[in-house]
Amino acid sequence: MSAMFRPANYRDVGEILGLWFDVSPIPAGRLLRGGRFDPMTTASDLGSPGTILNLRRGPDPGHLTGVNHVHVAADDDVENYDTRQRRVRTWLGKALSVLATPALAWPVYVHCTSGRDRTGVVIAAALLAIDVPRRVVAEEYTLSDGADPIAIERAIDGILEWLPSAEIDRTRLRVALTSGATT
Questions:
Q1: At residue 14, what are phi and psi to the nearest 5 degrees?
Q2: Is the Cβ–Cβ distance between 146 and 40 less than 8 Å?
């Protein structure tokens, strides 16, 4: 990757979880997150994802070859931190179902425009679904520039309320996210 550019809030979720765990529940290099990547020239500049999960309303640019693109747009008129709303939960369920897809090409780069809001809520939901402690989820989110700790706490409340009844295969999601982990 060019030393001059990285997408906003770019990080390797598995690697960063090493700040809190001796052994991260997600292997380094498996789940990447950040903002828009329009200026990137090759997929290797972005961490060589096999899949890019776009949470923006608009499509991704098509210049990165050899990468599967999946688009799970969040409605722009919905407050994505309000995870008690049915529309937000439906969107989260779709995004988590993509991550739980057995044939998904890994690693996965999850992104929105800034890599903070939509991406932060989806990453929080994925981590909570595999039983990463709430405190760690909130702290991982606050590593993003412009993070709103109050908003993510509100989102976490709604996610934890929703997860027991969510129509996602949490076992499959756990296997997908933790594949290669040594825990």
A1: -60, -45
A2: no
